[in-house]
Write a structure and sequence with these properties.
Arp2/3 complex 21 kDa subunit ARPC3, 8 helices
Amino acid sequence: MSLIGLSLALYIAFSFASFDIRVTKISMTGIPVIFISVVYGPLEGALVGGIGELIYQLTHYGLEVTTPLWLLPPIFRGLIVGFMFKHKNVRQHPILWIITVVVSCLVVTTVNTFSLWAVGWLFYEVDSKAIFIAILIRIATSIATAVVYALLIPVLFEPLIKQGKFETETPKEKGSN
């Protein structure tokens, strides 16, 4: 449980250290969500992502009608990574770790971009050209973030694997041996 609290604290710290660039945000908040999702599972990862993002939203923007839209991406990241890592094949092959992280980054960007579009369409008169340019910027940022995360995740888990604290078998398989 203390690891979940630590990950939540890291999420909040990373969110305050993020770079907001008009239509996108460069952040490392995905790292604690991915970490907890792999170690504990999808619900815990979604919890860290959802609560962490809620705190970020409340401290930066206050409670707004659109707040739930912005909570969805980190929740989805936790669910996707957590469910993927329940499978033996993903746990045993680092290349599948990277693919899982990249997929989670693309889903987060897609949901965030939809949220940005919805907010722009509902509350502001945003030009469709501006939204198209924002989408291109967000895709580029997502690819860069996915590369950084994909490089960091195996490095972060290597010490846990060496110490035997991260099993490459699912708990169900381990009990059947």
